[in-house]
Amino acid sequence: MDPQTSYLGYLAAVLTTSAFIPQVFMVWRQRGAPGISTGMYMIFITGVALWTCYGLALSDWPIILANGVTLVLASAVLGMKWYFARAGLAER
């Protein structure tokens, strides 16, 4: 793969992955995420985990990094949703 193609992959990885950062901060600030679909996030996290495994199998760093970081961020959103709901801290 030529360097320009790799840079394009890294740019795509940065943009799509960073899109989750505002969501993480919003859920943290609001102490809950009642409007976020648990089922959608569970399916999404499973898919992102599989993409990460795929990237590892190919040794494709843009895929590994983008999906690995997205996996952490999406899991944080879902984890906070569950935590704040259980702790009774979620906004209603």
Outline:
This protein has 92 residues and is mainly α. Helices cover 79% and strands 0% of the residues.
Structure description:
- With 92 residues, the chain is mostly helical.
- It has one domain: Monooxygenase, CATH 1.20.1280.290.
- 79% of the residues lie in helices and 0% in strands.
- The protein has four helices and no strands.
- Helix 2 (21-30) runs parallel beside helix 4 (61-86).
- The longest helix has 26 residues, at 61-86.
- The model has no long low-confidence stretch (mean pLDDT 91).
- It is a multi-pass membrane protein.
- This is Glutathione synthetase.
- The chain crosses the membrane at residues 6-28, 40-57, 63-84.
- It is found in: Membrane.
Helices, strands, pairings?
Blueprint: H1 3-18, H2 21-30, H3 38-58, H4 61-86
Helix pairs in contact: 1-4, 2-4, 3-4
Subcellular location: Membrane
Main location: membrane
Keywords: Membrane, Transmembrane, Transmembrane helix
